[in-house]
Specification:
With about 300 residues, the protein is of the alpha+beta class. It contains six helices and 14 strands. The N and C termini lie far apart (about 45 Å). It binds 2-oxoglutaric acid (AKG) and fe (ii) ion. GO terms for molecular function: metal ion binding; oxidoreductase activity.
């Protein structure tokens, strides 16, 4: 099976995306316009950060909302099958909250950055990449709505005007995965939200589950690997697939990747699109608030995430 390609600004992009999401839930996004130099700078900055001594990285330790550095093994994406955390460390940068959002969970802290004397370009580079990817994410979200038969649906205020966007830098260590012993780079999971735009280095490891088989996703030059998440599946009443994936280290080498999660507003109610519901195909999922969906997942997988008292 090959993974489909979507040409980001092609007149048929929405049809290409629909085909990819109905059949695989993953595709390569080409023609996206994110400058190569900016992508390269991201890898330079993240590698430099992850190579710092632990006590230096600890100055940017993840806060209660997971902004900042999450050390090796902090996350366990498949708790049922893992005996230790994912063999990776992470760094998260989120959208800056607006003053009237700070009462919301996950929105009440600011981004955490490394000491500028040690990492003078980290904040500027990650912020530039974050902004560029936010534009791209919105474009792909609009393609998604068109592909699902509801063009323009995400223009409605309250849907995507305050998206929950997370830039995530990942460093996998060189540890070989051992599936029998429950040791894995990144445990099998489906993503939780609408869209993930993933950049990787050239190292193999990413696999997706298709018809009970694990299939390698090879590196493709200057293409993002995009997948849709659980909210996309809910919106389309199961027509589009939120496909499980994992990262297995078979090489004994380190690996770097940068997923960018593009999610609706915290208060957006995700409810099956009318175009995906009929008398023969009733709604399979009750409405859910996007923010609550994310909070439920964070509690399950992050050792460092501290939920606010209820
Ligand atoms: O590192 C990768 O290639 C995938 C990471 C991933 O699936 C995730 O962070 O959700
Ligand atoms: Fe994922």
């Amino acid at each position: 099976m090959s993974i489909p390609i979507v040409n980001c600004f092609h007149p048929n992009a929405a049809q290409q995306l629909r085909h990819a999401c109905v059949n695989v839930g993953f595709f390569y996004l080409k023609g996206h316009g994110i400058p190569r130099q900016l992508q390269r700078s991201m890898y330079v900055e993240m590698e430099r950060f992850f190579k710092l001594p632990a006590q230096e990285k600890a100055k940017a330790l993840a806060d209660k909302n997971m902004r900042g550095w999450a050390p090796m093994y902090e996350e366990t994406l498949d708790p049922e099958n893992q005996t230790k955390g994912d063999t990776k460390e992470a760094y998260h940068v989120c959208r800056d909250s607006l003053p009237d959002e700070v009462h919301l969970p996950l929105h009440d802290t600011t981004n955490v950055f490394p000491d500028p004397l040690v990492m003078p370009h980290f904040q500027a580079v990650t912020t530039a990449y974050f902004n560029a990817m936010s534009h791209l994410g919105l474009h792909v979200a609009h393609l998604f709505a068109e592909a699902a038969g509801v063009p323009g649906a995400f223009n409605i205020p309250g849907m995507f005007d305050r998206p929950m966007t997370v830039l995530r830098m990942l460093h996998y260590n060189a540890e070989h995965s051992n599936l029998k012993k429950g040791v894995i780079g990144c445990g099998a999971h489906s993503d939780f939200g609408l869209l993930t735009l993933l950049s990787t280095d050239t190292e193999p490891g990413l696999q997706i589950e298709k018809d009970g088989q694990w299939i390698d996703v090879p590196y493709v030059e200057n293409a993002f690997i995009v997948n849709i998440g659980d909210l996309a599946e809910r919106w389309t009443n199961g027509l589009f697939r939120s496909t499980r994936h994992r990262v297995v280290n078979t090489t004994g080498r380190e690996r770097y990747s940068i997923p960018f999660f593009f999610e609706p507003n915290f208060n957006c109610i995700v409810e099956c699109f009318p175009s995906c519901v009929s008398v023969e195909n009733l709604a399979k999922y009750p409405p859910i608030k996007a923010g609550q969906n994310l909070l439920n997942k964070y509690e399950q997988i992050h050792a460092y995430y501290t939920p606010d008292p209820k």
